[in-house]
């Protein structure tokens, strides 16, 4: 038995020696010097905006308080480039009634300042108003920076109505409207001047601090919408000018909408349908037919679209075989009207 144990021990002795040698008694060789690198500090994902221009307005909102109607409000917005790269002012866009101009260079170096001047014309406004100015730049955090000007516009001289709407006026027909101009204090209207030859305006009555003015649409022979203003010049130093907007539409026997067919961008091989609405303003008028070009366009008249209103619908189809490129077509509506024997509706778009 002892001999058997001794034999077994001797048999496994080489295996045990090999195991001890590999697990700890012999150290591994160090890596070559060429593979040891210095522990350098590397910044990963650093904020790009910290290395870019930065537009800053200390006062982005300006309240001009209370002004009289007709006065111009001017204000200069000052800004600074607080970044570490050049700031580029790409565009300044304003809302209605405002204009804006860059007084400084469009390229502002780091630490330098610039100015934007805004002008607001109060002639068509009253009460509380708020207008916006959008400054577009290369600041990644503020590609579109919003500025505002606000305040209240008061009137010493008022008009009733505030604007004149002639509505639809048949071609060649004169139409009259009346407005009254009043004030709580003494004033005088020195001049009445329409902005367009389509209008005529004159003072018909003066009573204390009240004027009555007759405005006439002369009856244009051109069909379409019109607009203009009646300018009043007064002796009031705080409100020397009063502006009255005027608008309307000269119509004939037939009215069409829209005045132009726009397809936008259409992919080649895709058809599309647009609609033109036709209203007959006289019962004895008829639509005799339509013509359309180019040949990959077609038009279909849908009669009695609205029987009671004498309205028709024309469907204009752009077919799948339309050629790639700009679309410049024309729809011609032939009628029995002596005033509008042919109505032309342009067709535009692009096939891509």
From TrEMBL:
The keyword Isomerase does not apply. InterPro entries: DUF1573 (IPR011467), Ig-like_fold (IPR013783). It comes from the Bacteria. Keywords: Dioxygenase, Oxidoreductase, Signal. GO terms for molecular function: dioxygenase activity. PANTHER family: LIPOPROTEIN-RELATED (PTHR37833), SIGNAL PEPTIDE PROTEIN (PTHR37833:SF1). This is 2-nitropropane dioxygenase. It comes from Candidatus Scalindua japonica. The lineage of its organism: Bacteria, Pseudomonadati, Planctomycetota, Candidatus Brocadiia, Candidatus Brocadiales.
